[in-house]
Amino acid sequence: MLSVRDRVQKQAKPKGFWSGMTHRAASGLIAGVLLAGTGLGTAAQAEEKVITAVMHSGLRVVDPVITTAHIVRNHAYMIYDVLVAVDENFKPQPQMASWEISPDKKVYTFTLRDGLLFHDGAPVTAADAAASLKRWGQKDSGGQLIFDVTESLEAKDDKTLVWTLKEPYAPLIDTIAKQSALPPFIMPASVAATPVDTSITSFIGSGPFKFVEAEYQPGVSVTYEKFKEYVPRSEPASWMAGGKVVNVDKVKWVTMPDSQTSINALLSGEIDYMEQVPVDLLPILEGSDEVVAEVRDPLGYQTMGRMNFLYPPFDNVKVRKAALMALSQQEVLGTLIGNPDYYKVCGAVFGCGTPLADETGAETLINGGDIEGAKKALAESGYDGTPVILMQPTDVPTISAQPIVAAQALRNAGFNVDMQPMDWQTLVTRRASQSKPSEGGWNLFFTNWGVPEINTPLINPMLNGRGNDAWFGWPTDPELEALRKDFIKAETPEEQLAVAKLIQAHALDVVNYIPLGQYLSPQARSTKLVDMIPSPVPVFWNVKKED
């Protein structure tokens, strides 16, 4: 029998970078105790088709506009639909609506398809879509660029939405079709009227599952039930596009911070799916005929550090540069992932393996760091020992190692680091605070993006220089914004690449953020789950649960 690594390498080589695999594990007594507390494994569940999943994080925030957290995006795809969706070939397809573009490319007319209903039975209208898009456009990096050139967005009638631009904006359809970080999910207009800095309190969706609010335990479990009145498209499902056919009665997400417990529960049949399996635990799964471990997305994730530009010490570009010089991608990835089959040193802000990949400015990051250079740069920066409040999530394996490695490197370079442990959902909430670091704010945190979420300057949330309207960290960078507009105006792939290289160099020169390389995050599922869509975003339509 081939080893895990042998099988990974055998299956990965045709794709050139990453892989899929099949494995084994042991029993789940501890998991049984935890699951008993959530009401799982009952007779009622046995009578229904229920998928029980352990996702990468508990769900506490439920508004998909006020945060880019992946767990919130995943939740939103369960209960909301979108006008236009990208398929497995990265091509936008009609989802809730088809569209036409005027000859002068300034008027986009969307026509809603028949049968669209909200979960309360009300029809989805163009007015709902307009309100949802307007709220989304205040927060999303790409949406902001579209609304910069928007003359009007209004419902012509219940089925027709007209988006009129002041000037052509070629990436409009690609932007509203993107799968992350903030897809424009369609909500009732009354819900979308919620101020963008205030969380919604009504969860009436437009998608294939309904949110069971009565069973929601923030951070512990969340239940979704099939929306029987949802009318799927007739095309086959393809990533976020096509027919979202639900073949189960319910999907329940439960939180298990301990990965070993989750693996045991999966093998004992107490759960059906585990979104992220730490690479060092994959050998436990070796040889099982009842569990499949696989990689959903061959490009994987980029991990990175983000600084707060509003307060010392990282309001000083010289200090940011010193911090960048102190860090080594190899040390971060080696600690985070361990097995080099699953990671790649990569200094490209748009991700390696993408058309815009370039590594200008990342030389120290990809060559092991430069502690001595960092010490010198920090001394010359005027740094006065101001503490660096570094937020450390402790409950998500894919973001727990980076702060530890970074804290040591920064201390070696002369920084005063105050590393503060917390769970990921607390971090997600706290990173939105613009309070002083000494008053509940922060200076630095680490996060991950799927490469398809960052592969152009129009959708990469980190490459936004709009100050308070930018992503957490809030850099004010007019030069970056000018370069993004140059990218929009570029008419050929060659011209786009030339601008992208300028953005790469600029982003690393001002240290907009610190890219720390790419990695794969395997998932694991019971063999009872079949036809699960291998998309970068884990979705639960199309999948079937066999007896």
Automatic annotation (TrEMBL):
CDD domains xrefs: PBP2_NikA_DppA_OppA_like_16
Keywords: Signal
Solute-binding protein family domain location: 92-455
Pfam families: SBP_bac_5
Spans traversing the lipid bilayer: none
Subcellular location(s) per record: Periplasm
Family label: Belongs to the bacterial solute-binding protein 5 family.
PANTHER family from the UniProt entry: D,D-DIPEPTIDE-BINDING PERIPLASMIC PROTEIN DDPA-RELATED, PERIPLASMIC BINDING COMPONENT OF ABC TRANSPORTER
Protein name listed in UniProt: ABC transporter substrate-binding protein
Taxonomic lineage from the root: Bacteria, Pseudomonadati, Pseudomonadota, Alphaproteobacteria, Hyphomicrobiales
